[in-house]
Design goal:
About 25% of the residues lie in helices and about 30% in strands. The chain is an alpha+beta fold. The chain starts with a strand and ends with a strand. A hairpin with a 4-residue loop joins strand 5 and strand 6. It has a single domain, classed as Glutamine Phosphoribosylpyrophosphate, subunit 1, domain 1, CATH 3.60.20. The protein contains seven helices and 14 strands. A seven-stranded antiparallel β-sheet has the order 3-2-4-1-11-10-12. Strands 5, 6, 7, 8, 9, 13 and 14 form a seven-stranded antiparallel β-sheet that branches.
């Protein structure tokens, strides 16, 4: 399990999003309020954004977020209109290292997963791999179910270039249900294509992990945010309904689609 968050709005220095809120991801690393299957998120952290050329960029560290002496300096100098970040609580069978630390990126998308798939390393992983083209499989560097989910999503989009991201996410959720064959799956996802944020709140054979969004937080005027736990005490945070996809677009009101 992990905690995830995203920001979409006017350009913002990273520290305002990642470190400054009263219940920031940094605070959630040692004092989460709604983490069900762990007590700490001390197995790494990362953040991703798009650079000035629109190319995905990422910084990951397998150490606890509070222990990185470089982070305060980076956070007050890096600026973007879109951020995705997470803190990690590793599950058994998924080593703590750089390649297993989220977010994941490719040449177009940012991706983060809060959750797990029980007994993934076996039949479920094999069923997923069978759907991947060799070039897609070759991009997988670690062994987490999260990175394989990203590969499966990219495969769906590669196979259907005109398919909207939200449709591909819905198809991925259907595929996971078939591959998992009754195993517990916690499937909160964050994805961005550089223009929009997409969030999935979903689970199979268990309750969905917590996930919230806001478009009216006083600390982030005019911005839209998503987070596993509310970053501030503002009453404008709303729970993402279970088994739905949330789409945030800077030019449109939030949209919710049932799975």
């Amino acid at each position: 399990m992990c905690r995830i968050a995203a920001y979409l709005g006017e350009p913002l220095v990273l520290s305002r999003f990642l470190l400054d809120p009263p219940h920031s991801l940094e605070v959630q690393s040692w004092a989460p309020q709604e983490l069900k299957y762990a007590r700490l998120n001390a197995d790494g952290f990362g953040f991703s954004w798009y650079d000035e050329a629109g190319i995905p960029a990422v910084y990951v560290n397998p150490a606890p977020i509070w222990s990185d002496p470089n982070l305060p300096h980076l956070a007050r100098n890096l600026e973007s209109s879109l951020w995705i970040a997470s803190i990690r609580s590793a599950t058994a069978g998924n080593p703590v290292n750089h390649v297993n630390t989220q977010p994941f990126i490719d040449d177009e998308f940012l991706f983060d997963h809060n959750g797990l798939i029980d007994d993934f390393h076996g039949d479920i992983q094999q069923r997923l791999i069978e759907q991947l083209a060799p070039e897609q499989l070759a991009r997988v560097r670690g062994n987490t179910e999260s990175e394989y989910l990203f590969a499966a999503l990219r495969q769906c989009l590669d196979d259907n270039p005109d398919m909207p991201v939200e449709t591909a996410l819905a198809e991925l959720m259907e595929n996971i249900a078939a591959w998992a064959d009754g195993h517990r799956c916690l499937l909160n996802l964050l994805v961005s294509d550089g223009e929009r944020l997409y969030a999935v709140r979903h689970a199979l054979s268990d309750d969905c992990p917590s996930l919230y969004y806001t478009t009216d937080d006083e600390m982030f005027p005019g911005a839209q945010l998503i987070a596993s736990e509310r970053l501030t005490e503002s009453t404008f945070w709303q729970s993402v309904p279970e088994h739905q996809i949330l789409i945030l677009d800077p030019q449109e009101p939030p949209e919710l689609l049932p799975l």
